[in-house]
Amino acid sequence: MQEVNFDEAVEQIFAKDPRYARDAYVFLREALDFTQKFIGKENHGKVRHVTGQELLDGIRQFALVQFGPMTKTVLEEWGIKNCRDFGELVFNMVEISLLAKTEKDSREDFQDGYDFTDAFCKPFWPQGKVDSADAAAKTVAH
């Protein structure tokens, strides 16, 4: 089987589904590599399949390192507004054989991820703002 050229494959995906910027696919591939390396360290160097939840966590960590307080803005510029969008990117890549999946993997794995403000903005807020936002959220919840 001929190996798929990443750039050509992304062009094919983009032609079918232009919702997300090309850079989003490059970022996702890099975030997956980051996640696999992190999991490999935990598994004594053994590479294994990454679950949707593990990938979401890896994406969060990698994005914060790459883009800092601009993370949410960059992702939104690429068309990514929530964790479901990451699932769409992943499955677009699966459908063109850039990524593999198991029988257990589905788009639903990305449904209940994290809130982008909590994940990408809060880490950069001054502590007082974080405390007052948490207090306000608790008040609304009750």
Description:
This protein has about 140 residues and is mainly α. The chain is globular. Helix 2 (about 20-40) packs across helix 3 (about 50-65). The protein has helices at about 5-15, 20-40, 50-65, 70-75, 85-95, 115-120, 125-140. The chain contains seven helices and no strands. It has one domain. Helix content is about 65%, strand content about 0%. The relative contact order is 0.14.
Which class best fits the helix and strand makeup?
A: mainly alpha
The percent of residues in helical segments reads 55-70%
Mean pLDDT: 89
| Shape, per Cα inertia axes | globular
- In whole angstroms, the N-to-C terminal distance is 57 Å
Number of strands: 0
Number of contiguous helices: 7
Low-confidence segments, given as residue ranges, are none
The figure for the number of domains is 1
Kindly provide the radius of gyration, computed on alpha-carbon positions and rounded to a whole number of angstroms.
17 Å
Question: Which key features would you list for this structure?
Answer:
single chain, 142 residues, mainly alpha, 7 helices, 63% helix, 0% strand, globular
